[in-house]
TrEMBL record:
Protein keywords: Repeat, Secreted, Signal
Entries under PROSITE patterns matching the protein: GNK2 (PS51473)
Taxonomic lineage from the root: Eukaryota, Viridiplantae, Streptophyta, Embryophyta, Tracheophyta
UniProt family annotation: Belongs to the cysteine-rich repeat secretory protein family.
InterPro entries: CRR_secretory_protein, GNK2, GNK2_sf
Annotated signal sequence range: 1-24
Family matches, as PANTHER family: CYSTEINE-RICH REPEAT SECRETORY PROTEIN 38, CYSTEINE-RICH REPEAT SECRETORY PROTEIN 38-RELATED
Name of the featured protein: Cysteine-rich repeat secretory protein 38
Matching Pfam families: Stress-antifung (PF01657)
Length: 238
């Protein structure tokens, strides 16, 4: 898989701060750069991270705040759909360790890894669609029968989004039969602070972007700050 940034013009936003990190996929420092981070804010952040690391493995999602007023920090973590509890746990542990050194002078950051997403900020971002932070990865290989399944795939993704958005915890993992015993595995998920309507909107926007970035790819992952969309084809070699 290689990483391609969504052109900023599409979402009218800048990807200047998106950089590829060694173990994860990507991160973005949020808010004012080079801000002075108070000791109290750091303490709150560390407490929040331990809380999130403790909460997330069993549920796949955690949301919390620590502190008050100027030193209040908001954070959330989400484990990816199809991973084991221990992989989620170690992913979050790594992300909380790495994110501070990646964005030492920011009061917020988001980090996407293969198995989890972590976000924190001193601004209350709960319940708001995050369209400011996006990126996707795609397999350079194409679907072998792309033209014949194009329409079906798009309808299927919309269906997944519709079902996920109205069924807490807004996570869905399904297969689509693409003929000759070949399967397309797909998953969608939203951060659970979103309303059903906003979850659907976040996923619809992602689905709408697929034809612009990677419709024909054999495997795609498209992330925003508040939802994730994936599909990957498995070909039966027999
Ligand atoms: C932030 O600090 C670094 C290192 O001190 C400096 O090179 C950079 O220009 C600063 N950026 C801003 C936006 O002030
Ligand atoms: C991510 O999770 C999967 C499935 O649980 C696991 O096989 C894989 O090793 C994990 N990746 C990392 C980098 O831990
Ligand atoms: C955590 O980081 C270590 C090294 O920093 C790396 O070897 C390991 O694969 C990472 N685990 C996950 C789950 O990302
Ligand atoms: C995949 O399809 C795209 C668009 O049709 C094309 O530009 C690209 O070269 C193809 N990649 C491979 C590896 O065949
Ligand atoms: C996704 O594909 C893999 C490989 O074929 C398969 O083992 C797995 O069961 C599929 N996932 C689902 C939800 O069926």
């Amino acid at each position: 898989m290689f990483i391609t940034k969504i052109p900023s013009s599409f979402y009218l936003l800048s990807f200047i701060f998106l950089l590829q990190s060694a173990f994860g996929l990507e991160y973005k420092c949020l808010g004012v750069q080079n801000s002075t981070i108070s000791d109290l804010y750091c303490t709150n952040l560390n407490e929040l991270f331990s809380y999130l690391s403790y909460e997330v493995p069993a549920n796949g999602f955690a949301l919390g705040t620590k502190g008050h007023d100027a030193d209040k920090v908001y954070g959330l973590t989400i484990g990816n759909v199809d991973i084991k509890e221990k992989d989620c746990q170690s992913c979050i542990a790594n992300a909380t360790n790495e994110i501070r050194s990646l964005c030492p002078n920011s009061n917020g950051a988001i980090k996407w890894s293969h198995n989890c997403t972590l976000k924190y900020h001193n601004v209350d971002f709960f319940g708001h669609i995050d369209h400011e932070t996006w990126f996707f990865t795609k397999d350079p290989q194409n679907l072998t029968n792309y033209q014949s399944i194009r329409q079906k795939k798009s309808e299927w993704l919309t269906q997944l989004a519709g079902q996920a958005s109205i069924n807490p915890p807004m996570v869905l993992f399904r297969e689509l039969d693409i003929g000759e015993n070949n399967k397309l595995n797909g998953s969608v998920q939203c951060t659970r602070d979103l309303s059903s309507l906003d979850c659907m909107k976040c996923l619809s926007d992602s689905i709408g972007f697929v034809p612009k970035c990677c419709d024909s790819s054999k495997a795609v992952r498209l992330f925003s700050g508040t939802c994730e969309l994936r599909f990957e084809a498995y070909y039966n070699k027999a």
